[in-house]
Amino acid sequence: MKTATLASIALAISISAANAQTIGVSMSGLDKFRTALLNGVVSHGQTISGLKLVTENANGDKELQKQQVQKLIADKVDAIILAVSDGDLGPQMTKMAADAGIPLVYINNVPSNLLDLPDNQVVVASNEKESGTLETKQVCALLKGKGRVVVLMGEPFHAAARARTQDISDVIATPDCKGLQIVERQAAYWSSDYADQQMQEWLSAGVKFDAVIANNDEMALGAIRAMKKAGMPMKDVVVAGVDATDDALAAMVAGDLDVTILQSAVGQGAAAVDAAVKLIRKEKVPRENNVPFELVTPENIATYLPKSQ
Questions:
Q1: Which InterPro entries does this one have (predicted)?
Q2: How far is the CA of 246 from the CAs of 65, 265, 273, 308, in angstroms?
């Protein structure tokens, strides 16, 4: 009986080892949002029995990220979750994973080769048409359809930055918002420090504006910091961002930030892990998997404080 019991235990361990899966996670960098995104992947992965996660951070270095993905492939991971800073890296990353027969899930940033992805490669992101549109429509409403606007953009080659910036222009082209005018538009690379510096330059140059529309919260917060240092009353300017990070929500509670858009890092992280596991099992997954954006304002912020990144 004892021998049979030991044999049963050994068989159970063997089956468990056979079912164990490893997912490699490659992040282009770890700013506030992407850290929350990685945490969303890791926390959900920990709820799946037998799943192991191996994480890599490229610190903004495209060549290093390619090397890290090559190493994950050489280590024979079962799937890869990939957050690229540059969607144009997609074709190279797709080929590397496809040649190795390893499922690939792009997270947050849409690759330029979206329409050419093989069946075992998918995208988990949020529809950027919603983000910049929700953000700018709310700014338009707060300004009653008239005013001067400055725009802070993310990395110029990032799909989300391009889409959110185009959303701003599209909303301003509508009849209700045609009274808005973009007086300045510059890239601040998702960074609060770059945004702070850019805002200081605008203020020093005497640029007049009624609203700041930023592609993300970090840049909105950097702009706020610069304006407050310059003694500019925050009640006199509308400031908007995207991501609903904890720092952004705190700024909204303080009365400094007027608009943000929840991009659920937790939701994207969990959806990416689930997609990777399904692909490993040879299950069919839609090419595009969208996690909705949500408008956050001082009027409804109480609902979103528990969801902060």
A1: Peripla_BP_I, SBP_2_dom
A2: 28, 12, 23, 5
What does 206-242 look like in DSSP terms, one character per residue? T---SEEEESSHHHHHHHHHHHHHTT--GGGSEEE-S
pLDDT in tens, 127-177: 988 999 999 999 999 999 999 999 999 998 888 899 999 999 999 999 999
**Rounded Cα–Cα distance for residues 107 and 60 (Å):** 16
Backbone angles phi, psi at 80, to 5 degrees: -130, 135
What's the 3-state SS for 103-147?
A: CEEEECCCCCCHHHCCCCEEEEECCHHHHHHHHHHHHHHHCCCEE
In the block, which residue shows the tokens 């799909």?
Answer: 159
Q: What local confidence, expressed as pLDDT, does residue 306 receive?
A: 61
Pair of tokens at residue 278:
């399904």
**Angle at 254 (CA atoms; ends 138, 206), nearest 5 degrees:** 65
Report residue 87 as tokens: 């969607």
User: For residue 54, which phi and psi values (nearest 5 degrees)?
Assistant: -115, 120
**Tokens matching residue 48:** 């799946």
pLDDT of residue 160: 87
Identify the H or E element spanning 150: strand 146-153
Measured between alpha carbons, how far is 182 from 151 in angstroms, rounded to an integer? 7
| Domains of the chain with bracketed CATH | 21-125+265-290 (3.40.50.2300), 128-263 (3.40.50.2300)
For residue 197, the SS3 value is helix
SS (HEC) of 60-106: CCHHHHHHHHHHHHHCCCCEEEEECCCHHHHHHHHHHHHHHCCCEEE
Closest CA to 107 of 245, 264, 272: 272
* pTM (2 d.p.): 0.72
- Copy the structure tokens of residue 86: 């540059």
